[in-house]
Request: fold
Amino acid sequence: MVDLHQTESGLPPEHPWLALSRWGIVWRAALGAIVAGLCVLLVITLLIGTTMPEITLNLVWFGVPQLLVMIATAAVLGPWLREFHPFLQSLMFSSIALAAVFALVILVEVVNRVIGPSPWGAGLFMVLCFASLPYFLTGAIGYGLAIWSVTPRGRRAFWPLLVGVLLLFVGSWLVAQLAAG
Reply:
């Protein structure tokens, strides 16, 4: 018989993730989301096949509010999520952050309808419907990276990964800027 009621943490008791403070979880989750988000952004830019830096910057600005929601989610639920297995923590974190973004978008859409009806209908809601999969992947992968980054092996790999992704993003944006100019 299988007992589905979890009575202990999904991580070993000596895992460094369990010893982190709320803010230790938050800044690691934010950096993990930045790494994953920039990777997703680079993939989207390659799939679109664009070299226009304006589109890339628009996608970055679209990701900033999502990053803020992920930071708030990690601040509120990070200590509670530690009770679960790392894979489940990542899925739950990303799902809750995505649900929070949908709730905020619905609120913004209602306010926009009251203030002045848009001829485009539910524009922001439709954009989020298309962006929900990349957003979910960003949150799940980013939170998983955050959990992994506190282990000795993860620490040695995470910081070069962060620097590498930032350099790749800035380099590709500069090349696109030079090609467009």
About this structure: The chain is about 80% helix and 0% strand. Residues 86-115 form the longest helix (30 residues). The chain has a mean pLDDT of 83. The helical segments are 22-48, 53-81, 86-115, 123-148, 152-180.
